[in-house]
């Protein structure tokens, strides 16, 4: 946690919060909520904490939602997405496993390149969206939605067992790491115009907190969510 907070402070990003429609205020009657490693940071910066998918997360800081939105579009902001399901797919048949569950050519990803994809059922119906990254450390790093945690994990675990029974080299490990997401990726060119989108498949480069790199221009801390 200290490492994550120090990175936020050093780069000067603003941390953003969850859209209000996705959450509800905390109450004593609710089950005990999980906390991300940045929980104390949110409280210290005036975050209004709410329940979301079993986690206590900030819905708003001192700025209005409009101000936060405009800052993100004009500059950039960080999202605390540590609540999301983070999974390592291991083994020499890891690409075969992932390509049996999602749409897209995972094998073509360069080291540390990620792509937005979809979990699908046997009939091709969409189950959930996710990001798959081909790490340079010899595993696939998968991030999917906290609201579909149990469903997504069961899907991957079932496929792992199926392939292992066929003698395939594949494994799965659930991670419990702090995770930050940077938005807007157009910040280096002054931000993206509302409504603009790429005609190509979404791709991105993955990195670790504390790794070398240049902070995006205009960044300040805020609450940011998908």
Automatic annotation (TrEMBL):
Enzyme class: transferase
Alphabetic keyword roster: Aminotransferase, Transferase
Superkingdom, natural source: Eukaryota
Catalytic activity of the protein: N(6)-[(R)-S(8)-aminomethyldihydrolipoyl]-L-lysyl-[protein] + (6S)-5,6,7,8-tetrahydrofolate = N(6)-[(R)-dihydrolipoyl]-L-lysyl-[protein] + (6R)-5,10-methylene-5,6,7,8-tetrahydrofolate + NH4(+)
CC per GO annotation: mitochondrion
Enzyme Commission number, as recorded: 2.1.2.10
The GCVT N-terminal domain, residue ranges: 38-179
Sequence segments annotated as region (Disordered): 186-226
Entry keyword annotation includes Transferase: yes
Keyword Transferase: yes
Molecular functions (GO terms): aminomethyltransferase activity; transaminase activity
Cross-referenced Gene3D superfamilies: Aminomethyltransferase beta-barrel domains (3.30.70.1400), Probable tRNA modification gtpase trme, domain 1 (3.30.1360.120)
UniProt-listed InterPro entries: GcvT/YgfZ/DmdA (IPR028896), GCVT_N (IPR006222), TrmE/GcvT-like (IPR027266)
Family membership: Belongs to the GcvT family.
Subunit structure comment from the entry: The glycine cleavage system is composed of four proteins: P, T, L and H.
Protein name: Aminomethyltransferase, mitochondrial
Gene: AMT
